[in-house]
Write the structure tokens for this entry.
Amino acid sequence: MLHRLIEDFRVRGPLERTNAEMARLLAFACERWSPGRPLLSREGAYTRTCAYRDESVEVLLLNWAAGAASALHDHGDQHCWMLVLDGMLQVDDYVRLDAANIAGAARVEARDSRMLAPGGLDLRSGRFDLHRVAATPEARAVSLHVYAGPLRKFLVYDEATRRCEAALGTYDDVLPAYDNLQPR
């Protein structure tokens, strides 16, 4: 599943495709999902495993422990497609209310919440397209994330204190099968 998806992205990056094309491509990937080797896991948290990265695309697998949640975050002005492969993920949408003109300050507000089952797709684009993602307390989950370019830096938000701070996109693991692929 990952090999074909990555090869498709090596030919044409995600921003060279329509949202409908991306949805079809990711739905196909979900239908053929098989974990292969076990993904790195961490009790009470999620792990980020890099499957592939070049300048136009980054493909990650996130392995969510039961009840694990991300921080409220944006996507560093990148487009991001998140596809649930296994389990259920709750997605809480937020909007940024301030003009982002004071470093470290941010007023955000919850807007919507939904559950995504396997095959469920979430698209993020734009500077302040914010969300928080969490696995259900009952079961673990796995999601596939495709970024239009590596997610190197993004913001995490604290709703209560009205603060935000920069975070770096890091990996907990890299799939060895794709670690040695040469960029296009």
